Structure formats: C-alpha cells, structure tokens
Amino acid sequence: xxxxxxxxxxxxxxxFVFSTAGVFTKGVEAAAWxxxxxxxLAASVxxxxxxxxxxxxxxxxxxxxxxxxxxxxxxxxxTAAFIPAFKLSSVANVALIYGAAPFVAAVLSLLFLREAPxxxxxxxxxxxxxxxxxxxxxxxxxVAWRGDALAFFMTVMMAGSxxxxxxxxxxxxxxxAALSSILLLPLAxxxxxxxxVEAKELPILGLFGLVFVT
Length: 214
What we know:
By secondary structure, the protein is mainly alpha-helical. It has one domain (3-213). It is 79% helix and 0% strand. It has 11 helices and no strands. The protein is globular and about 50 Å long.
C-alpha cells in the first residue's frame, strides 16, 4: 500500500469514527458540557497512558512546539462547538456541514500557504459551500441554525488544524489532541455540571473518548 492509498484509508476510517459522534451525543441525556468533560477526561487519560506505555511520551513532549500548541487550541475550540452542535441541530446537518472541511482547508491553504487548489477541488468546494448554504436556509426559521453555526465553526477549526499540519508536517499529533481535551476540562466545570452525570452514562462517555483516541 503506497502513501496515497494509506492516506485515503485513514480518511475513510476517520469519517467512520466521526459518524459515531452523533450516536454517542444523542444517545445520552447528559448536557453538552458534561459530555465534553467526561469524553475529554477519558480521551486525555487514554492518550497519555498509550504514549507512556509505548515509551514515546518524552519524545512527544520534546517535540511539542508552538505549532502543536496552536493545533491543541484549534482542536479544543472545535470540540467546544462540536458537541453542542449535535444537541442543537440534527446529526445529518452537522455531518453534512463537516463534510465541507476538506474544501474549507483548500481555501485556507490558498489564503495562508498560497497553495492553489486544482480545478476539480475548486468545483467541489463551490458545491460543498452551496450545500452548507442550503442547510442553513432550511434551519433559518428554527433553533437548529445555532447548531448549524457551531458545526460550521467546528469545521473551520478542524480545517485550520489540517492546514497547520500541512505547513508544519513534523508537528506531533497525539499530545496536542490530549491537551485539547485537557484545556476544556476547567471550562466544562465552570459552565456545566459534569459531576451530576448519571452513573449509567459514564461508560458510554468513556467509550466515546476511547473511540476518538483510536
């Protein structure tokens, strides 16, 4: 399997994992910030434990520069919008809006890296943005537009992290992902009430974190 095929396979796996987010979020009664707290706690613990067991934690720490911190901040901002988006809008709307992420990344690459997209990507970008506009127009008369707006913000943040890794390909990935979860923990305690979560939902939220780590 060559590099391109490996990349395509990873994108497919990523899309499959992302598709489970709506199931986890809608499948529990916990509020958005409660989900963010427990999912983030589980994800960060699993990630750091995995790095420690592999013996790569020190290497990740040594390679942790400002691009890695910037990636962590963008991932944290995206997650802060990601979970509430599912609570305020439909799973289909959020998933379709996030589907525009590669094309948002193409626009950001053009603006910040001066990488001109191909004609095919340009056409697909226009179509993707057209789809986002259609989704917003369908939600304009209800409360779902707030979820759609959060989904689009999340999409921009995720696309931004893609461009950052393109610009700085040696940036570590695992530790910024863990840090993005850790950054949201105190905020979740302030604006939410994660301690009051039902015990029966904790395994589900833990599994949610584990799925996104893998």
